[in-house]
């Protein structure tokens, strides 16, 4: 139970201590009127049974007064408990969500990429909502379901153990049934949550991929995947309710059998003159009061466990080790790979790579598709850490550096530009939060964006649609160049666009890139060799190893892979070598 409390409070069970304490007090106060009631009933019974000659009205008024005081106490404690429960639950969610969002940022990208797109969002929103539900709506019922019977049973045990035993005789059988189905319950609960997450993943995939679906005419297949996910969830829900429901009903029936047992035992004991009728009435009264919260608790327990599973996903995510490293990156920006071996899974993508990218120079990485070019950039930015060898930044292993501080030293212009659903101005401002409008415009001008931005309906205040769908690929990439110019980091990681741009866009893009790389340490993935002719150093990658390196002329002279790729590209596109000298880089 303690573990589940940890789950529903995102790892901080002590948060619920106060609400539970108030709930216990409220339940205790709730039981007190029974004492007054029994005393009052005994006195009234004695009068009508002829055991008393006068009805002591003063005494009765006192008992009724006591009941009213108890009601006030119950109200006060319940109000406190109610407030404390909701406050703790929602505070724990808000803090938990913030903490998780922060933690996710520090996790290795590799871990995040292994997750399905909707899964993290699901944990962030739905799983927290489920834990809120567990803490606010189910926990108080469970507390009452335990406290009321325990208090009542202890009190009644004191008065007459036989009646008390009869009252809870069926309870051990109920517990046994609940314990027996708990494994099945967990298994079904888990497949049900998986089906629920899969359903939201498929839905997200279907909606986000609408463009691709339309382009590739995949509508049918993707819709079927979505439909299958909906029906799978439906089946899991029916299985969960249908398979477990009867067990819980039987458990409740066994427990409620206690009421019949009290009646039978009571009648025998009254006939034997061992208990009085008022005492019998007390047991019946309390009996009816404890079975209701107990039944509710039994019926709500599976929901609590199910919601706690959502909390378990949150806590597991919070317990994922974040990337380590605290040191500041040095001022020197030489980057070196020393015998670096890396793979996303078992297969090796980079194999004992050693390479040097010197400060203030432009290093180009070229090679066939899948040779590991982007992976090298990801290791420099510490999206991943290598399995063997070291990536050095300014002579120090990046693993010792604070990942966020390291990223501050770098700007990245990649092909898959993500624009936030925000204004163009703010999208550029992500490069540097405190940039002024003037600085944003200057960066936009240098990145050749200013003119097309000014033609938009609200200029810099134009909203960019989800994922930036209202701008062309070239425009989006120039926005990301403006961001990089604004960030003004000393190191630039650049993945040249492969998508063919129209000539005007291409020229603008090249102009923007040549401004961006000025005076920086640049590592650039080049897909078109004409852009690397003037690079200070070229690394030629093939199947995860550096097969050649040097300047363009040397590599052409070597007659190796680079020269072959060069031949292939110049022949297929009809480029002229002379013209290449004027290329942007
Ligand atoms: N996140 C990932 N998980 C698993 N494998 C990956 C991942 N990213 C890349 N790979 C694999 O690693 C290998 C190298 O990929 P990488 O993207 O570094 O190549 P690249 O040279 O940049 O290719 P391209 O020029 O086509 O972009 C490929 O076989 C690719 O399938």
Automatic annotation (TrEMBL):
Membrane-spanning residues: 20-47, 59-77, 138-158, 164-181, 243-262, 268-291
Protein name: ABC transporter ATP-binding protein
Organism of this sequence: Xylanibacillus composti
Keyword annotations of the record: ATP-binding, Cell membrane, Membrane, Nucleotide-binding, Transmembrane, Transmembrane helix, Transport
Top-rank taxon: Bacteria
Lineage per the UniProt record: Bacteria, Bacillati, Bacillota, Bacilli, Bacillales
CDD domains cross-referenced by the UniProt entry: ABC_6TM_exporters
UniProt-listed Pfam families: ABC_membrane, ABC_tran
Molecular function terms, GO-annotated: ABC-type transporter activity; ATP binding; ATP hydrolysis activity; ATPase-coupled lipid transmembrane transporter activity
UniProt membrane topology term: Multi-pass membrane protein
InterPro entries on file: AAA+_ATPase, ABC1_TM_dom, ABC1_TM_sf, ABC_transporter-like_ATP-bd, ABC_transporter-like_CS, P-loop_NTPase, Type_1_exporter
Ranges where the ABC transporter domain occurs: 335-568
Localization per Swiss-Prot or TrEMBL: Cell membrane
